[in-house]
Amino acid sequence: MVELIKGVATKEKERVEKLFAEASEVLATFQKEVAGFIEDGERSMLGEAELDLRWKEERRAKLAQCKQNLQNVPSKDTIYFLQEFQALKIAMEDNLSPAPSFQNELNFTKCTQAVCAVKDMLSAVCKKQWDRLQGKGADGLNPQEMGEAMTESRFPDKPNNSACLESRDYFLKFAFIIDLDSDTADKFIQLFSTKGAKRVLCPIPYPESPIRFINCEQVLGVNLMNRGNYYWEVELIDGWVSIGVVTEDFNPREAYNRCRLGRNEKSCCLQWNGQNYVAWYGGVESVIQQPFFHTIGVFLEYSEKALTFYGVKDSKMTCLQQLKASPLRKIQLDPFQNKINSYFASLFSFRLKPAFFLESVDAHLQIGPLKKDCVSVLKRR
């Protein structure tokens, strides 16, 4: 019996060591792939940045030459002055370079998030299996549970999840500057510069625009989002306000019931209705039981096809609702999540724009972040 125990233990150790070696190879391969992904992203974006830099240097040299020519014109030679001035004007307007795509997001910065998800999943699985070996738990995680553990460890999608996964500083790495587009603003929305919007009773005589909302008190950001991660904040100053995104091809001339954010399959939003928060998509709502937050953080993960709304207070982030399909889960009784599972990913077939709906007559918002004293000043307006 002694020899049998020793023999079985030896064979078991050999099998375990072999499996650990294979698991280490899997992790090493994943590490190489992630490192390669970062290096590829670095090379690609450095190349783009260097091309843009060379273009700007050439343009600067050309403009400097035109400026020098203009300064050398004799003071009384009007015709020569006008010719050189026209040459400078053409040089300033000619061959405008498109904005580099890396200005908004370095798309390889999500690697840390992915590796943290793997680490969290491994920690959870190891603890559960160790408890099982010691007779403290039931069977281990099956493959589906493992996938869900990895997803939920970094992307919780329960509306009542109040855990702060990251500090606000983490999200500020993906800060996205939003400017409101006056060409889209409904006539009952007054804009304050490009950051503030307030619903008013008297219509504003905005010029005609094919992209202006005419049946719904909404306004869009001029910014387009089509890859990477984006984070912005909105101050809810007064009234009922909805914050969300729409597809680039969204029709602002739709009837009121179809045009409102979240009442169609081309937009989604988080609404504050004076009593609680409500998430809307495809005409289906999900009520969120959370206290009021003056500041709402919006985190869009384009490649992950996910949109998360946070309540922000004292640099702490409270997850209010995440909109993301969960294909690994069974059919749920929740009609809102079923709608998300069926259609939400289709939003990301288009470029997206930030969108805002000022629902009540006293609705007022400001693209943040703002200091507390700034809010009171705006409210007195």
Observed structural traits:
381 residues; alpha+beta; Jelly Rolls; 2 domains; six-stranded antiparallel beta sheet; 8 helices; 13 strands; 39% helix; 20% strand; disordered C terminus; ConA-like_dom_sf; metal-binding; B30.2/SPRY domain-containing protein; SPRY_dom
Tell me what you see in this structure.
This is B30.2/SPRY domain-containing protein. It comes from Anser brachyrhynchus. Residues 158-374 form the B30.2/SPRY domain. GO terms for molecular function: zinc ion binding. Keywords: Metal-binding, Zinc, Zinc-finger. With 381 residues, the protein is α+β, with helices and mostly antiparallel strands. The protein folds into 2 domains: 2-150; 157-380, SPRY domain (Jelly Rolls, Sandwich), CATH 2.60.120.920. Helices cover 39% and strands 20% of the residues. The protein contains 8 helices and 13 strands. It has helices at residues 2-71, 78-93, 111-133, 143-154, 168-172, 256-259, 335-343, 372-380, and strands at residues 189-192, 196-199, 218-220, 229-238, 241-247, 267-272, 277-281, 284-288, 295-301, 306-313, 316-323, 352-358, 364-367. The protein has a 7-stranded antiparallel sheet with strand order 1-2-13-4-9-10-11. Strand 1 and strand 2 (196-199) form a beta hairpin. It is flat and about 115 Å long. The model is unreliable at 147-165 and 370-381 (pLDDT under 50).
